[in-house]
Amino acid sequence: MRGVTGKYPSSDGNGGANGIIKHNRKCRDVVFLLLFIAFWIAMIVNSSFGFNQGNPLRLNFGLDYKGNVCGGKHKDFNLNELELKYYVNPNQVYQSGLKNSGMKLSNARTICLLDCPVPSEDSLNWVCDYPEGDIRISLDDWIDMNYDYFADLTPELRNTSLQLQGPCYPVIFPSVNVYWTCQLIDRPSNVSLTHWKQMNGVNIDDNMAIDKSIHHSINARSSVLKRYVADVGKSWPVLIVCGGLLPLFLSLLWLLMIRHFVTAMPWVTVFFFNGLIISVTMFYYLKAGWIGHDAISPIIGEHDPYYHVSAREQHHIHAAALLMTCVMIVAVLSSIAIVRRILMATSVLKVAAKVIGEVHALIIFPVVPYFILAVFYMFWLAAALNLFSSGQIVRNDCSTNCCAYDLKAKRVSCDDCCGYSIHYTPHIGASILFHLFGCYWATQFIIACSSTVIAGSVASYYWARGESSTTIPFLPVFSSMKLLMRYSLGSVAIGSLIVSFVESTRFILEAIRRRLKVADIMPESWIKRMLFHTSRFCLKCIELTIKSVNRNAYIMIAITGKGFFKASEMATDLIISNILRIGRVNVIGDVILFLGKLCVSLASALFAFLMLDTHKYKSSHNKITSPIFPVLVCWGLGYVVATLFFGVVEMSIDTIILSYCQDAEEHQGTAHYAPPLLIETFDEQNEVQRIAQ
Q1: Residue partners of 426: CB distance under 8 A and separation at least 6
Q2: Phi and psi (nearest 5°) for 533?
Q3: pTM for this one?
Q4: Beta carbons within 8 Å of 445's beta carbon, 6+ residues apart
Q5: Which residues cross the membrane (predicted)?
Q6: Residue range 6-18: mean pLDDT, rounded
Q7: Cβ-Cβ contacts under 8 Å for 376 (sequence gap 6 or more)
């Protein structure tokens, strides 16, 4: 026998089945391994920049008039409990809502508070600056005094306060906590206004601009994105349970059930898939407010039930509910359509069940890459939160004609009353994109390594069946791991890089398409539109083809030890020459496995909804603005974990089928090395006759 690859002999020319797997190898694709190592060094440097410059508190909380982040501990003041940003000067808020005023809301004077102030029913409440200078009270006393030390001010400071120059400012408008910003309500208190006028305070503008100006700032796209990223960080216990532990348990359970109840598993998978996707869709309906009374709200804490605030998060959850409705309908109809083919899937899954029964370590092996990915994701998520919140807090360069009393300088200052903002440089955006790409490449790399180890283990099982059973290496999984670590990491690195690059390119082009659609710059002629949509379809087909070729290339790498490109060529030749054989046997089995992965990820999403629905994630500090991102992350993590474990079945089937086809080709249509259990399984469903056609 010339080796498993037929016209491609083994490197040492040794005969015998065991020589096929254990022939002398060379390190392959070393350049790409060095590239992967350089990538990891760059990831560490990039992440260290985030840890050094970032502060996740910035994602939710605003800045005060000193440039401090609300909710944080700073040099002068400990603002740990003061998380709400409040605009103290209503006239500045009003002017920022006018088109030609030159006043921006970012320059309006803000302060961090424990709760949003409300006007008094019988007097005039005040919110004063942090106590410093001649105001000799502690920050805790200031909070206990409801931020009001106006009565203790000198006549001079009272006069500047009546000019809206501080250090105290009147509470004329009620406010409500909207995503940790006190949204002023355009309903001024008549009692407070009367007291203000009696004290000869300056005129306070009363207009809808006060309401709209802050509302537009809260609903800015950048603010919404920051809140979504912060939601993921605050829901880390949900990610651990629903994105890590739950899919681990469900995936192991599914593998064990495949081992012992293979005939029933396709039916069970289809049934649970339909139930889970309907349940997840209903939760989206619930959070969208279409059913029940548990819709998400931008208002945090107790508030007037007659006051409503709209937010982009609400529109997004509505869109997600509509999308899930379409996905649910298509998924349910598709699952019904494949019911008649499930018997064929059962025969294919029996192949994997036989292999798992013989090579017991295959069930446990995915735990190794699972823990590697778990450690990587924890590091990656922490770095991502810091990268998204990185930047420098700088004073705005404004020409606003405003003055404010400085308690430390003991005078009214008109030179530095501009507000603060976080300055983002272009390289921060590049760092975030690199970090996202790095996550995808690392994930694909770990999955590829797992697939290659499984393929080598299954190949050892298959090609040793023609000889004594003692030729199967002891614990073939560890033998395959050793070969991978020593010779083929570079090959796996380039394979995973190609998939990551194609997927990233498709994502970028899709983002450009959406921007063009929003800007109404889409092609007008039907020919250009057809070419545009055809190119999208072709790119998706290329992506799927590369993923398929890669999977089979990993099998040939595990068997032959060749480099990635040579293994891809060998795998492609074998697939093309046996396309009908492989296609007929594999397609329905892949569909059932895909539904199984979706079952695990949907269960993760469903339990994430349940955990996020507890009081912990509805309270002021830990409130999740929308379940969309945490649920999507749990969904994605569940799918990745399921891919690791379901890869045992998937790669077992692919390796067995490729080996069977090559075996039959080497022996004039008779598979000499096929184990008896495999032949029995094929005979039961008449698959041998189909493959031999």
Answers
A1: none
A2: -70, -30
A3: 0.85
A4: 36, 492, 493, 496
A5: 30-51, 236-258, 264-286, 320-343, 363-385, 445-464, 591-612, 624-649
A6: 40
A7: 442, 446
Residues forming beta bridges with residue 12, ordered by sequence position: none
Q: d(Cα 57, Cα 54) in Å, to the nearest integer?
A: 9
User: Binning pLDDT at 50, 70 and 90, where does residue 415 land?
Assistant: confident
The answer to whether 173 touches 210, Cβ cutoff 8 Å, is: yes
For the chain, the maximum distance between any two Cα atoms, rounded to a whole number of angstroms, is 106
Greatest mean pLDDT among 9-13, 360-364, 367-371: 367-371
Q: How far apart are CA 635 and CA 371, in angstroms?
A: 18
Token pair recorded at residue 686: 């008449």
CB count within 10 Å of CB 446 equals: 20
Q: Which secondary structure element, helix H or strand E, spans residue 392, and what is its range?
A: strand 392-395
The Cβ of residue 672 has, within 10 Å, a number of other Cβ atoms equal to 14
* H/E segment holding residue 441: helix 426-463
pLDDT at 434 (0 to 100): 92
- The residue assigned the tokens 């919404």 is 224
State the Cα torsion 100-101-105-108 to the nearest 10°.
170
* Nearest alpha-carbon partner for 231 in 608, 588, 686: 608
- Residue pair 12/24 in contact by the 8 Å Cβ criterion: yes
- Cα-to-chain-centroid distance, residue 183: 30
User: Of the candidates 368, 351, 354, 355, which has an alpha carbon nearest to the alpha carbon of residue 478?
Assistant: 368
Q: What is the DSSP letter of 486?
A: I
Q: Are 112 and 82 in contact (CB under 8 A)?
A: yes
Q: Residue 33 and residue 145: Cα distance in Å, rounded?
A: 64
C-alpha span between 452 and 561 (Å, rounded):
11
Query: Cα separation of 66 and 166, whole Å?
Result: 14
Q: Which residues contact 591 (CB under 8 A, 6 or more apart)?
A: 338, 341, 345
Question: Which letter does DSSP use for residue 60 in this model?
Answer: T
CA distance 115 to 82: 8
For the record, the structure tokens of 560 come out as: 């032959």
Distance of CA 2 to the CA centre of its chain: 47
In DSSP notation, 398-423 reads ------EEETTTTEEESSS---EEEE
CA 415, CA 400: separation in Å to the nearest integer? 10
Structural contact between residues 93 and 403, judged by C-beta atoms closer than 8 angstroms: no
Residue type, 494: I
Q: What is the mean pLDDT of the chain?
A: 81
Q: Is the peptide bond prior to 630 cis by the omega test (within 30 degrees of 0)?
A: no
Which residues, including other chains, have CB under 8 Å from residue 221's CB and lie 6 or more apart?
Answer: 312
Strands 168-170 and 126-128: antiparallel
Give the whole-angstrom CA distance, residue 654 versus residue 455: 8
Residues 171 and 124: their CA atoms lie apart, in Å, by 7
